[in-house]
Amino acid sequence: MKQAAPEPKRIIPIRAVPADDVEAFFVEASRKIYPRSVSGVFTRWRWIMVFVTQIVFYGLPWLEWGQRQAVLFDLGVRRFYVFGLVLYPQDFIYLTGMLVIAAYSLFLFTAVAGRLWCGYACPQTVYTEIFLWIEKKVEGDRTARMRLDDGAFSVRKVARKALKHFLWLALAFWTGFTFVGYFTPIKVLSLEFAQLDLSAWEIFWVSFYGFATYGNAGYMREMVCKHMCPYARFQSAMFDPDTLIVTYDTERGEPRGARSKKADLTQLKLGACVDCSLCVQVCPTGIDIRKGLQYECIGCGACADVCDAVMDKLGYERGLVKYTTENALKKKWTRQQTWRHVFRPRILIYTGILSLILLAMIVSISLRTTFKVNVVRDRGVMARVVDGGKIENVYRLQVMNATEQEQRYRITVRGLPNLSITTEQEIVVASTEAVWVVVRVQAPPEVAQPGLYKIYFDIDSLHTPGQLHEDSKFMVPS
Question: CA gyration radius for the chain?
């Protein structure tokens, strides 16, 4: 039987991209954006978030709790201090819980109102806003900055640029210094800096974080949001037609065009948009919101603020650019109808899950014991027969005190008949310290047949309520 001739391979033509298009893309990507100053309700909220986040970031390392720094991640001794909590590496579950809470919060906020995190609290947005404010104070408004950059080389230009970069670098390295202050006590770090005695790792991380802040907020700015941030790429998966987004009312605004303040729009057959392009000039990522929702939009609302100001001057109704949903715009819902649809089942499910995780975290932290114990068999001494024919196993116990007061603990053992501890049964552990103790456990020779038997160490706190039970193996040699 003849075999059927194989089908010819399909050749899929690849359209060549014109060189002009490629060049235009790179020119557009490298074009510097000069955001125009704007005022309004969203701008005020953005600056409120700048102040709140930076007061917390710069101020928290200097906050004292008792005789120590309130928040300190001391990697050298592997202890994390968070106000009254003292956490050990064994408490990693709480870090996992915090990451889960952060992830669900991101899902919730994005489903409700798009890129709220990006527009108001993301460090990239916050530091870009601060660096732009410094740039405006030193070089002037948008037009002045453009003229300065396009102008010829001069002493004035060099002086202004030098001052701007000096202030940028000072802020960036203070940011790096503060960041390291969360891992090395910041007062100790300050003393080391004053004495020029910083360690190599401290110098590295201050420099790394400082230069990262300087580069990201001073130079890259919107490029991080547009080309480097993964959130911009998958945000659409969390949007739906009832998500609040910054959007342009095309039906009301088009056709756009210039006109005088007293012009009759019905005779001119124009929409409310005067095509002033101010919404583009104030955008920190340089997009035109009138082209619809774009992944580059960080949801800051600057375009809505400036458009409302233009509408006020012309005597038009506000809201040509505003926070609303696709369904609300399409179906012309009222504000009450819009908010009823914003809090839809998906949002209620996210809120419920987030509330349960938060409750579980709070309950877990409130019920956690104030000390931890690790039991390790002494590998050098597996089992031996001592005086009186008794069988002895040796263990090493690590007892960690997670309180900030000295604690006393009692160690007992059970699991086999007539087990006893021949070493000291009560130990004292200083505040937030961990000690290793050697524990010798003995049993009579007739305790059991040769083999391994499970036993339990009971560790009781004598100062604060709490008891831990740790299991191990007791070896009866043949």
Answer: 33
Q: DSSP code of 90?
A: G
Mark whether 69 and 145 lie in a shared domain: yes
Domain assignment of residue 58, yes or no: yes
Q: Which residue has the tokens 């075999």?
A: 3
Beta bridge partner(s), residue 345:
none
Question: Considering the domain boundaries, does residue 72 fall inside one?
Answer: yes
Cα 106 from Cα 121, distance rounded (Å): 12
Domains contained in the chain, number: 3
CB of 271 closer than 8 Å to CB of 252: yes
The domain boundary, picked from 294, 326, 342, lies at 342
pLDDT tens digit sequence for 79-90: 888 888 888 877
Reading the block at residue 326, the tokens are 């696709």
pLDDT at res. 230: 83
126 lies in the same domain as 266: no
Report the C-alpha dihedral over residues 303, 305, 308, 309, rounded to 10 degrees.
-110
- List the Cα angle 253/333/270 in 5-degree steps: 15
Other CB atoms closer than 10 Å to residue 188's CB: what's the count? 12
CB 170 within 8 A of CB 177: no
Residue 222's CB: how many other CB atoms inside 10 A? 20
Instruction: Identify whether the C-beta of residue 280 lies closer than 8 Å to the C-beta of residue 222.
Output: no
| Domain endpoint, select from 175, 199, 230 | 230
What's the Cα-to-Cα distance from 330 to each of 177, 248, 279, 325, 347, rounded to whole Å?
50, 12, 22, 9, 21
Residue type for 472, please? S
Rounded to two decimals, the pTM is: 0.80
Three-state DSSP class for residue 187: helix
Residue among 51, 177, 77 nearest 435 (CA): 77
Give tens-digit pLDDT for 293-328: 888 889 999 999 999 999 999 989 999 999 999 999
pLDDT in tens, 129-177: 999 999 999 999 999 999 999 989 899 999 999 999 999 999 999 999 9
Residue 424 and residue 444 in contact, taking contact as beta carbons nearer than 8 Å: no
Q: What is the mean pLDDT of the chain?
A: 87
467 - beta bridge partners? 460
Output the domain CATH number for residue 452. Answer: 2.60.40.10
Cα–Cα distances in Å, from 427 out to 226, 293, 409, 432, 435? 58, 65, 5, 15, 9
